[in-house]
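To whoever is covering the structure queue this week,

Two jobs came back overnight. Logging them here so there's a record in the thread.

Job A:
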Amino acid sequence: MYILILILLVGTSIPLITMSEHYAVLLIYALFTLISFVLISKKKLQFEHFIMALLASSAIPHSVTLGGLNVSISDAYIAVMVVLLVIFSKFELSIPKTYFVITITYLAFCALSLAWANDFTNGLARLIQLIEFMLITVYVFYNIRSTKFLKTMMNWYIGLATVLGAIAVGYSLAQHVTGPLYILGFHKNALGSVLGTSIPLIYGLLLLNKDCSKKVKLTYLFCLFITVFGLLMTMSRGAFLGSIAAIIVLLYFTNKTKQILGILGLIAVCFGLYAFILSPSYLESVTRFDEYSSAYSRVIIYDDVTSKIKEHPYIGHGVGNYFISIPQINFSQDDPNNIFLLNLVELGVVGLVFFVLMILYIVGVAFKNKREFKQNHELLTLNAIFIAGFVARFVHIQVDVSWVRGPGLFMFAMVGMLLSLRKIVKNIKQGS
């Protein structure tokens, strides 16, 4: 069953990366959708079987340009899944209503901001991306019907992250790399995001499967070791911060607050051993702050974005309409390396308020789940894993580019699965 799905995924993913006529990829994905439809309609497979690798596909941010839009494997994958989901739900959309009301309000203001944006094209591309992450991704993952599939999806993601981590570690050791790691077309921060977000998932599944066999525990511990070591190799400071914050959140939401200081101490010891003994040049590279460093560039970016926020403090410059260029380091990007500043400069105070309401709702659901699931170890731990995974990426984008293909989908996949827990419980109660 899974072999068939892998063949279908590989058969559609490879052309997306390698074909020069990228529009032909649309035909391939149309064929994939048709085959999926036939197999599910004949009850050969469940919808969830096809979605198994969707979370893992977010670990591959590489993209091609189709119709002026950058499209990654996960973008194309989720487009197929949402079509199948709508068809097989017989167009009866099951959505988290409160979340959708808040998010659609935010996205509606983003759309309205195109009216005063200087570059409509950039704004439209960003709006499409936000709709994909905040609405489509959440809708698809919200409709997963059992905790079994939720855990399987995380295992697929962890598996791919471990492979990437092993490649990163092997390459670093073989080539004696001491600086930031760039491999397989990954930027160090993109690879760091994949490895950093996998850490709370691995640790959470260890807590969830506390009575599992020794073999399973050793497998998870091996994955944890590889991803942590690989994360160190990337030198992605944002990913470091995100993974540490996520572990703290995970322990808090699983009522293991006494372990937080111990875990932080262990992290400090491991980091110290690596930075001061195994690779003394590592700490110098991470703390570099000269005028050609990425850390110093953030000072210039923050000065620039602050001045632009003052120009239009209430409604911003329009979604997708921030851009900065720093010629002396050959640097340019459309993000101030902070999600709150990005909202302020593009959407002003009004847009920021809508965004904060969305985040507060997500966190509020996690706290509500924590109270209601306190007698159910599985649901309590899954809730903790999903909010921790969300936090890992959310903290990262306080110091890095916010809306990136792959990691952005992962972030809101965590939201969809977090919200799905209450629906799963409700369906179980109705079934009994």
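Job B:
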Amino acid sequence: MTSQGTRERVNEAENIPAILVTPMVRADVPIVFPLVAMGEPGLTLARWTRRARRLTIPETHQKNGAILARYSGRPGPCGIAFYRVEAPQSGAWRVLCVYRVVVITMGSSGPVTLALIHELSGLAAELGCTATRIHLSRPDPATIFGLCSSGYAGEAILLHKNITPAEVTPT
């Protein structure tokens, strides 16, 4: 996908409709809100609109942005991935970091997640990045297998636990 284009991914082996992946544009902002709000309780449309509009400025796509996935022939997006390009202070190399992926679909989220990640890998190459780094919350085994089959390897395990009020020690 070019920064302005659409790429269609077809998974004929699983009889899944083509998945269209496109950059998020300003007209997508209100349509995407329910999808993003599913993964971010308390998000308001006004706050999302302010945040999302910054991500839809074409001139900023070399630094950060969002891409959407849609099933061909179906209205509305079923997936979104947010990215930013990071460079260490030395500036010797750049990494495209996928810091959030949200997918809502009736079937497996794997094909949609993989289409988004593969598209971002291509964007990373276009932007001169030497690597991609992905943060996925609760990925299914098929997604992990697909990513590992594409050359991704786990760097770390990130674990999270919410501390309940009963566990908090008063200071």
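Note for Job B: The longest strand covers residues 95-103.

Please reply-all if you pick these up so we don't duplicate work.
Q.
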